[in-house]
Specification:
This protein is of the alpha/beta class and 341 residues long. The chain has 14 helices and 14 strands. The N and C termini lie far apart (54 Å). Keywords: Signal.
């Protein structure tokens, strides 16, 4: 049975007053900083300061929630929001038991009302991973309500724009968030252990890639029929592919997750297509579409049926990225020579 946490009457009253819009605000009296605090971290160009470790987290999306589980913070998660199309991530998660022990607060977009009702003192989400201008849920809006938040570094935005952009390489974004969260929650030792573990997994995967072999070109297919949705150079998928020994044909897209054109895919003629596995449609249905789509019939990956299916949680920033690099490396290393297409 999911854990139920008791909130202080003061926090519950503050949430109620804010949600009902009565104009009154109730705030806890300031308390001295906890031992080892305050700590300040840099997140997407903003300095965030915490006087004590947060205790009531609300989070959005599978990779984000799994990061908290990997850090051992499951008992501090008040609840999470996860769209139904990512249910398979829960089913195959190394942290499935953790998912089952924490309340799922919704299957749609995360909302201010849910955050306040749960008495959250920390929200972990990202641009297009819960934060959106059109829903009114942004870090600035939450700050106005007195709720601290942290932005997934894969999704950092530059300027006042609706385009999601990274500010560092995706694997470095993962390490940065682990280190920052470790400091915020007072679990830096665990964070450094994870970073060292993931670095070693990636190092070993990269060491298996032959230096004298041309890198197979790879296209990540997420979804879409009129236009394909894919990952650019700031999406975690880019480094999963490139560190695994592939050449990401969309690596020149200065964005994270975005659309491209089928004409571009055909022109760049990928040797392999990686399918992002979430549904609907299923990975099998996505592959069937690609194989039956007339403009792609002469693409090498289609002709030779070279498809690799990876889960959504492996392709967005999160603790499964390192293992996914090894999966890609093993698959590409097992391909016959690409000579002659």
């Amino acid at each position: 049975m999911p854990r139920q946490r008791r909130r202080s009457p003061l926090l519950a009253l503050a949430a109620l007053l804010l949600v009902t819009g009565c104009g009154a605000q109730v705030r806890e009296e300031s308390a001295p900083a906890a031992d080892g605090y305050p700590v300040t971290v840099s997140n997407c160009g903003e300095d965030l300061t915490f006087d004590r470790p947060p205790e009531r987290i609300v989070a959005y999306d599978s990779g984000i929630v799994e990061t908290l589980f990997a850090l051992g913070l499951g008992d501090r998660i008040q609840g999470y929001v996860l769209p139904r199309e990512h249910d398979r991530d829960v089913e195959n998660s190394p942290w499935r038991a953790d998912f089952e022990s924490v309340r799922r607060l919704g299957v749609d977009t995360i909302s201010k009302e849910v955050i306040l009702e749960e008495g959250a003192d920390f929200v972990y989400a990202g641009w297009n991973y819960g934060f959106r201008e059109d829903t009114g849920l942004t870090p600035r809006h939450l700050a106005d309500l007195g709720v601290p938040s942290y932005v997934l570094s894969e999704s950092c935005r530059n300027g006042n724009t609706d385009r999601s952009r990274g500010v560092m390489s995706p694997i470095d974004a993962l390490y940065t968030d682990l280190r920052n969260l470790g400091r915020i929650f007072g679990v830096s030792e665990r964070a450094e252990e994870l970073i060292a573990e993931y670095r070693e997994v990636v190092r070993q995967a990269e060491a298996t890639v032959p230096d004298d072999r041309p890198r197979p070109s790879v296209f990540l297919y997420d979804s879409g029929t009129d236009q394909p949705f894919t990952g650019g150079r700031y999406a975690a998928s880019h480094e999963v592919i490139t560190r695994g020994g592939g050449e990401d044909i969309m690596g020149d897209l200065e964005d994270s997750w975005t659309t491209t054109t089928w004409e571009t895919v055909v022109k760049r003629d990928p040797d392999v297509i990686v399918i992002n596995d979430y549904d609907p449609p299923s990975a099998a249905e996505k592959q069937a579409f690609l194989e039956s789509f007339p403009p792609l019939r002469h693409v090498s990956a289609i002709k030779h049926k070279r498809f690799l299916v990876l889960s959504y949680a492996e392709l967005v920033q999160g603790p499964r990225n390192a293992a996914a690099v090894r999966v890609v490396a093993d698959y590409l290393n097992g391909l016959p020579s690409m000579a002659g297409g």
